[in-house]
Amino acid sequence: MSLTIGDDAPDFEAQTTEGTIHFHEWIGDSWAVLFSHPRAFTPVCTTELGYMASIKPEFDKRGVKIIAISTDPVEGSAEWSKDIEASQGTAVNYPIIGDADHAIAKAYGMLPADVEGDPTARSAAQNATLRNVFVIGPDKKIKLVLIYPMTTGRNFDEVLRVVDSLQLTATEAVSTPAQWQRGDDVIIGGSVSNEAAKEKYPDGWEEPLPYMRIVKDPSAA
């Protein structure tokens, strides 16, 4: 069964390119981004892992840990990392999980339960569903799920933007509008009464519609 927003992120123990981890323990009190790959040595994923490595400092600033997962054994991902550095200009600076028995992919609903056998004998096309991004909160709940097709590289700037929104709305009773970027105006949550809003936003708000109250990003003050 596929996982969705609000579900518990399955815990697991796994071998990675940086040693053995217990996933929930590894996350700790941080946020986390788990993104999956059908196989090592695939061209689109090579560009993705390289780009993610280049913007990792932005995730670090936000207290977000990054981890990738491939069905290939850890040794294959370690070799793949050399190609990523050589072609993308940035060394992989986060762990890559080796999910050779598909256990994690199945737990996260990315592969059917009946998939078995040597992962290196399966083509990337056979593992096409392994093109997911999960954002996981410190409470170990899934906050975002994105699924991309094989032919389309993922937009990790968008993942970073969503993290900004998730972290803001986790602490403030607001929502973020379309195309929102950190520091832009936000929408006061519908659960907040006008009386409570006046206390929190004494300078008032814009109200282009009876059900839309727009204020400055409270975290930008």
Automatic annotation (TrEMBL):
Pfam families recorded: 1-cysPrx_C, AhpC-TSA
InterPro entries in alphabetical order: AhpC/TSA (IPR000866), Peroxiredoxin (IPR050217), Peroxiredoxin_AhpC-typ (IPR024706), Peroxiredoxin_C (IPR019479), PRX_1cys (IPR045020), Thioredoxin-like_sf (IPR036249), Thioredoxin_domain (IPR013766)
Keywords associated with the record: Antioxidant, Oxidoreductase, Peroxidase, Redox-active center
Domain Thioredoxin: 3-168
Record carries keyword Disulfide bond: no
Similarity comment: Belongs to the peroxiredoxin family. Prx6 subfamily. Belongs to the peroxiredoxin family. AhpC/Prx1 subfamily.
Record-given protein name: Peroxiredoxin
Annotated source species: Paraconexibacter antarcticus
Taxonomic placement: Bacteria, Bacillati, Actinomycetota, Thermoleophilia, Solirubrobacterales
